[in-house]
Design goal:
With 480 residues, this protein is an alpha/beta fold. It folds into 3 domains: 11-161, 3-Layer(bba) Sandwich (Glucose Oxidase, domain 1), CATH 3.50.30.20; 165-443, Rossmann fold (3-Layer(aba) Sandwich); 444-479, no CATH class. It is 23% helix and 29% strand. The protein contains 14 helices and 23 strands. The protein has helices at 46-50, 105-111, 122-132, 146-155, 165-168, 205-213, 227-232, 251-260, 271-279, 329-339, 408-421, 426-429, 442-447, 474-479, and strands spanning 11-16, 21-26, 32-40, 58-62, 66-67, 86-88, 91-92, 115-118, 135-140, 174-175, 194-200, 216-222, 237-240, 266-269, 283-300, 305-318, 324-326, 359-362, 366-374, 380-385, 390-393, 450-455, 458-463. Strands 10, 11, 12, 13, 14, 15, 16, 17, 18, 19, 20 and 21 form a 12-stranded mixed β-sheet that branches. A hairpin with a 3-residue loop joins β18 and β19 (366-374). α8 (251-260) packs across α9. The longest helix is centred in the C-terminal third of the chain and has 14 residues, at 408-421. The protein is globular, with a radius of gyration of 23 Å.
Length: 480
């Protein structure tokens, strides 16, 4: 077993606003931080979690018992600046074993000023958060008095009162420079086929990589860049990124999205999904403890396939708040019945058994179709606008870390942009009952653009110019 840092001489204390306290030892930088305490269920990917801007304002508990086993590889870093407030683990490894490792995780945390604690019962802590919900907390190596630290936790600013997107977004318009860093990773096409503008609400670098690998030249803009300035860049599509905090505090983004809807193809993920919903007048609710991990099952209602998804959000849209329902009345009654008993306020799982996904009639933007549902709690995980070119998912398709099941969504975005380029207008789009660009065969999409060459020494893999429009749909696969 790897050696750990449990012998650290510096004690640390974690205090929650409800009076719960957990003592342990420092395994990061000394100091004191406050934030909303949440948990992530991933077994791997701790560096991507730590460097994900979506964790701004939060103290993250890792549920897997030992963290840091494979060390730190800078290629996995998702943002230059660390936004999360603190880290909680059961056991921190100080002597990692991995050929890619440049340093240990405790060294990385100390260099970047991240306060961290180990040696506490994280199973008990996570069970407490599941029952009581995410809450304010203070983590300190300086003040070890429980009464004092609990008082500080209760006085901390709630997550819902801060616009964290403003803190993590870039300030200027920047073209994204792509670098292929892994020997067997896909590489970008030699020439980009699409010009995409990406709103930076706290975007991860691997998400931008996914857009580039799908054939997009990406220009990243600040979170509140006016819609007319975005349109002046003449994009083929606009991407709405992930980001931290309460979507109600990000009016600077969803006000622009409202103006962009119908004028250019839109694709939103995570907070970007919520921005599309807010632009259409949707209600947003705070989840009890959120979805944070790499193993959330989600069904695509168009293909009836289940994806294992990567998620990181504490808020969720209410699908029924988008408009009046146009769907199977019997299933709608079942949704109403089970939603009354749901902890999230809305359980959409009965729609996974329906012949067609439900559609609501939105007063401003027409029909909106439910496309993805979380199989754990029935919350909305995806939607598409049937009368304007836009779609979104609540989860992360970039697989950093996690499953590649959802990477087809980047392909779906390029297909949507291709439709607009080929002359599909809002008027012709109105005749549709569903969006074919989301009906993609995951297995075929994973291999699109790849070629394998045999050599005496073994083999190498490379990515040629991907043809994303042929042979990658469910319909084409079934007719083969």
């Amino acid at each position: 077993m790897s050696k750990t840092s449990k012998a650290s001489a510096q004690p640390a204390l974690l205090a929650l606003e409800d009076g719960s306290c957990y003592r342990g030892f420092s395994c990061g930088a000394p100091g004191e931080v406050s934030g909303e305490l949440c948990f992530n269920t991933g077994l791997v990917g701790y560096l991507e979690v730590i460097t994900d801007p979506s964790y701004a304002g939060q103290i993250v508990t890792m549920t897997y018992p030992q963290i840091g086993n494979y060390g730190v590889n800078v290629d996995d870093v998702q943002a230059d600046k660390i936004a999360l407030r603190g880290l909680v683990v059961r056991d921190m490894c100080t002597h990692p074993s991995n050929w890619r490792s440049a340093e240990s995780l405790p060294e990385f945390l100390r260099e970047r000023g991240v306060v961290a604690i180990e040696g506490i019962d994280t199973r008990a802590l996570v069970r407490h958060l599941r029952e009581a919900g995410a809450m304010r907390a203070v983590l300190s190596t300086e003040d070890l008095d429980e009464v004092s630290l609990v008082a500080k936790a209760r006085a901390a600013t709630p997550l819902t009162e801060v616009n964290f997107v403003e803190e993590v977004s870039r300030d200027a318009v920047e073209p994204y420079e792509y670098e292929s860093i892994h020997p067997f990773a896909k590489v970008a096409p030699k020439e980009a086929r699409y010009n995409v503008v990406a709103y930076d609400c706290g975007v991860k670098s691997s998400i931008l990589d996914g857009l580039v690998e799908a054939g997009c030249a990406v220009t990243v803009v600040p979170w509140d860049m006016p819609a007319e300035e975005v349109l002046a860049l003449e994009p083929d599509g606009v991407f709405l990124s992930n980001g931290p905090g309460d979507p109600d505090k990000v009016e600077g983004t969803f006000a622009q999205v409202e103006q962009l809807l119908g004028k250019v193809p839109l694709f939103g993920i995570c907070l970007g999904h919520q921005m599309l919903g807010k632009a259409a007048g949707a209600e947003v609710v705070k989840l009890k403890y959120g979805h944070r991990g790499i193993n959330q099952p989600v069904m695509n209602l168009i293909t009836k396939r289940v994806e294992i998804t990567v998620q990181n959000h504490g808020f969720n849209l209410v699908f029924s708040s988008l408009g009046s329902l146009e769907g199977d009345a019997k299933t709608a009654e079942e949704v109403t019945r089970v939603s009354e008993e749901s902890a999230t306020g809305e359980d959409l799982r009965p729609w996974t058994h329906a012949a067609k996904p439900p559609v609501v009639q939105n007063e401003q933007f027409g029909r909106i179709e439910l496309t993805h549902v979380n199989l754990n709690d029935g919350t909305i995980e995806g939607m598409c606008f049937l009368d304007v070119p836009a779609f979104s998912v609540q989860y992360h398709p970039e697989a950093a870390p996690g499953s590649t099941d959802s990477q087809y969504l980047f392909t779906a975005f390029t297909r949507l942009m291709d439709e607009r380029e080929s002359g599909v207008t809002n008027e012709t789009q109105n005749s549709r009952e569903t969006e074919d660009y989301l009906a993609i065969d995951i297995a075929q999409d994973r291999l699109a653009g790849w070629k394998f060459d045999s050599h005496d020494e073994g083999f190498t893999a490379s990515c040629g110019e991907p043809d994303r429009l042929e042979g990658s749909s469910i319909k084409d696969a079934n007719n083969a």
